[in-house]
Amino acid sequence: MELTEISNQVESAGNYIRNLKDYFLGPELWSSMLAPELWSSMIFTVIKVILIIVIARIVNRVANASVRRIVSDRKNKHLRFDVRRATTIGALLQNVITYVVNFIAILLILSQFNFNLAPLLAGAGVLGLAIGFGAQSIVKDIITGFFIIFEDQFAVGDVIQTGTFKGTVEVIGLRVTTIRAWTGEIYIIPNSTIQAVTNYSIYNSFALVDLLFSYEEDISKAIIELDQIFLALHEKNDNVVSLPVVKGIQSLGESNLSVRISIECRPNTRQDIIRDLNQEIEQKLKLSQMPTVRGAAYLPDEKG
User: Smallest Cα–Cα separation from 143: which of 120, 114, 177, 175?
Assistant: First the structure.
């Protein structure tokens, strides 16, 4: 019995091998593989896929160029128009267009390989619902990004601070906001984590400088010399909005007193103006035209 069973198994294995040999070496397979209809169909499919990819890239470029052109035209027109907001919405529209065009291109490519898109889209809807529950942070990022733009909290090019991150807004995307620090670091922040924002680019700011003098110095003379410095600074620097003023003696210390200066300046120009002020004061001190400054304090205390 055992020999008969083994013999039957060997015979069935031989039959299977012969069938495989006949299939792969038989004329039917090679004739079907070499059929012109098969190759023409494959070549036509590859050509259509390449055309879809090329057309998608062209649509992306044309659409993005159109958005940039519209934003540029709006900037150049002498109309009441928020340039910051236009730039930000333009960048967001380019992201949305790219995602939509690429998604449609993927569906068209799949259809060329005879994928049934109806159950695929239905499954994608169910999968999207499941992902929506499982990836709530991503949904929050996208919703927060839209509210940031349409409420005009900040825009591309603004200098902002959120939490410990401060810098120039480079990109406001669907999910993340990119900030570049003045030292070159790039911060990529999920939109949902942006809770409180300080925007330094909307309104004029004030530079407050406390100059220290000893009690032996003539403060009245120092104020007169500072007024001359302010005139020169206001004429030379267009970012100084109005003539700087001396607020008066701010504090009295054990060996020094401080005189406070207030300078209104355009957004994000405070540090440049303070450097120009320091240079003017240094030149006056070289010429011995004003009492010696023992030190200085700058408010707000920031770098840039």
Answer: 175
pTM value?
Answer: 0.54
What CA–CA distance (Å, rounded) separates 200 from 178?
Answer: 16
For range 251-280, the mean pLDDT: 88
Residue type, 272: D
- Beta strand spans in 152-199 (E): 159-162, 165-172, 176-180, 186-190, 198-199
Q: What percent of the chain has pLDDT over 70?
A: 74
In sequence order, the 6+-apart residues with CB closer than 8 A to the CB of 168 are 157, 158, 159, 179, 180, 182
CATH number of this structure's domain 142-199? 2.30.30.60
Closest of 248, 283, 278 to residue 262, by C-alpha: 248
| Domain range annotation of the chain | 2-34, 37-134, 142-199, 205-299
Evaluate whether 262 touches 206 at the Cβ level (below 8 Å): yes
46 phi and psi, to 5 degrees? -60, -40
Q: Rg of the chain's alpha carbons, rounded to an integer?
A: 36
CB count in 10 Å sphere of residue 145: 22
